[in-house]
Design goal:
The chain contains 15 helices and 13 strands. It has 402 residues and is of the alpha+beta class. It has 2 domains: 142 residues, no CATH class; 204 residues, no CATH class. The N and C termini lie far apart (62 Å).
Length: 402
């Protein structure tokens, strides 16, 4: 099978039905998904304007790398949508899948194994089936996700997925030279609420009173750094502290390369499997992407909603995962959590289902007027320390010394 896949690398071969079938088998697509995609392929081949649009979009994505990475829905060409109706998303899915040979070539140039390629692309059939189960017909909507797969940016290594990117946060991470504990200092451009979380977090329709808004300070001189420390739970302290250069050093700052972690659906999230993924990633990326040495791990997920500590059991895998990261203030929302729990980013109405413990907990929490918002976080320890909550222990030591 692997050898046959490698023989279909030429883009001209894509419209050979036998070669497409090899890819469908490689991806493990269901019979229904294959039939839907093949029907769309034949429809494209019978229409000159559809074929012209298809080839133009293929040039845009696979050749020029102009993918839809934004988390908003992919915009469809209204002319194509008028012609294909509900089948439009399958047209665009075929455009994206037409990049598979190019993705494989990119893997080969970096010396990445076929096993890793197969492991990474396994997400694609999952999201195809997910759409069919959700809407009762074949189609696709997770284009921003698979754009990361097909562009070669995102790599699956066990339970977790990783992607190199410049650290987007503007917090400053300092590491103790001797004890190795990490402290984050707040972003001076991010206005904060009285509780130390970001203005704009939670429900944007509930503005923060002006008198409660404050801006953290951060200054650097030859002796060290002054700033407002952040708790690993994601809020900043109003009282600043000074960190001397002879005791502290910069561990991470804006623009440094980090491993961005993504958490695929459909599997348990236990600490051991996550540790194994981190160990694989720390070995994989220096070998295959040596031009981008990373300084830490970054993640922004609905699982980093601090209010989940009130909604889930203390021993839940989600909270265990959350406690390994150092969260920091960000104007996050409840959208991604609500989408995961209820299937929509909109706040649930009175008729929202209460058929799971998490759904009931979220609905009860919101009914009492409480807020929900997600945060980003960083993990700046070694994979061997995963599971030890090193950042929370370091914070406890820091506040004890103050």
């Amino acid at each position: 099978m692997m050898k046959r896949i490698e023989e279909t690398l030429s883009e001209e071969d894509w419209w050979n039905a036998k070669n497409r079938l090899v890819w469908w088998q490689f991806l493990g697509l269901s019979e229904g998904a294959v039939q839907a995609l093949e029907d769309m392929a034949h429809q494209i081949q019978r229409s000159s304007n559809l074929m012209e649009s298809f080839l133009a979009l293929h040039e845009q994505t696979a050749h020029r790398g102009e993918w839809h990475f934004d988390w908003s829905p992919l915009s469809f060409n209204p002319v194509i949508e008028a012609q294909l109706g509900d089948g439009t998303s399958l047209f665009y899915l075929l455009v994206y899948l037409n990049a598979l040979p190019h993705t494989l070539q990119a893997y080969q140039r970096r010396g990445i194994s076929m096993d890793t390629f197969a492991e990474t692309m396994a997400d694609i059939p999952f999201y195809i089936e997910w759409y069919a189960q959700k809407y009762g017909r074949w189609g696709f909507e997770h284009f921003p996700w698979i754009a990361r797969h097909l562009s070669g940016r995102l790599i699956s290594l066990g339970r977790l997925q990783f992607m190199l990117l410049p650290f987007p946060g503007k917090v400053l991470a300092l590491r103790h030279r001797f004890h190795h504990q990490v402290i984050l200092l707040a972003d001076p451009d991010q206005p904060l609420r009285a509780d130390g979380y970001a203005v704009g977090a939670g429900n944007p329709d509930l503005p923060v009173p002006t008198e409660e808004v404050w801006y953290p300070q951060r200054q650097e001189n030859e002796d060290g750094w002054m700033g407002h420390p952040i708790s690993p739970q994601g809020y900043a302290l109003k009282v600043p502290a000074f960190f001397t250069r002879d005791t502290w050093e910069i561990a991470l700052q804006h623009g440094d390369w980090v491993l961005d972690v993504h958490i695929p659906r459909g599997k348990n999230l236990n600490l051991e499997e996550c540790r194994d993924s981190l160990q694989r990633a720390f070995a994989f990326f220096p070998g295959h992407f040596p031009e981008n040495p990373f300084r830490g791990v970054y993640c922004h997920t609905w699982m980093f909603t601090p209010q989940l500590q009130h909604l889930l059991r203390p021993d839940s895998h989600i909270l265990q995962f959350q406690r390994e990261f150092y969260l920091y203030p960000h104007p996050g929302s409840a959208g991604f959590l609500l989408e995961f729990v209820f299937g929509s980013r909109e706040y649930p109405g009175n008729d929202a289902p209460r058929d799971t413990s998490l759904r009931r907990a979220v609905l009860d929490w919101l009914s009492h007027g409480h807020e929900l918002f997600d945060l980003p976080g960083v993990f700046l320890s070694s994979p061997q320390e995963w599971g030890e909550q090193t950042h929370r222990k370091g914070w406890l030591a820091f506040v004890t010394e103050q």
